[in-house]
Amino acid sequence: IERCISEVYRVLRPGGWLGIIELTRPNAKPLQYMHDIYLKTAVPMIGKWAIRNEEAYKYLCRSIQSFICPERLLEILSETGFTNLSNTSLLGGIATLFFAQ
Q1: How far is CA 76 from CA 10, 14, 42, 72, 81, in A?
Q2: Strands of 95-100's sheet, edge to edge?
Q3: Which of 12, 52, 56, 101 could cross-link with 84 by S-S, CB 3.0 to 4.6 Å?
Q4: Is-contact 21 11, C-beta < 8 A?
Q5: How far apart (Å, rounded) are the C-alpha atoms in residues 52 and 91?
Q6: CA nearest 76: which of 8, 26, 21?
Q7: Is the pLDDT of residue 99 over 90?
Q8: To 10 degrees, the CA torsion angle through 55, 19, 4, 24?
Q9: Which residues contact 58 (CB under 8 A, 6 or more apart)?
């Protein structure tokens, strides 16, 4: 993640903006519980039936569960040199929108 953010910072024009939308984990415990059940059961099932690729959707679930928290991504952006950082939690924290200049 650090290498990717550093490379974006390197190639971005001065004053340019970076926008990231990332699938994240909700903060509220009840929503976390429901989200975990959804990720472990419904998402792979949808992948198996609709896309015929259950493994890809299992991977998606694992990557969401293991991805860094939004606060850590903001730290990495700041440490890299980005300013004007903001993040907006969407759908109770299931996704997060980040902006950095």
Answers
A1: 14, 18, 32, 6, 9
A2: 18-23, 95-100, 86-90
A3: 101
A4: no
A5: 27
A6: 8
A7: yes
A8: -40
A9: 44, 47
pLDDT value for 83: 98
Structure tokens at 64: 């969401």
Residue type, 70: P
| CA 79-59-89 angle, 5° bins | 45
Quick one: 6 exposed, middle or buried, by C-beta within 10 A (0-12, 13-18, 19+)?
Answer: middle
Tens digit of each residue's pLDDT (9 = 90 or more) over 59-96: 888 888 888 999 999 999 999 999 999 999 999 999 99
Structure tokens at 29: 């415990």
Structure tokens at 8: 């974006």
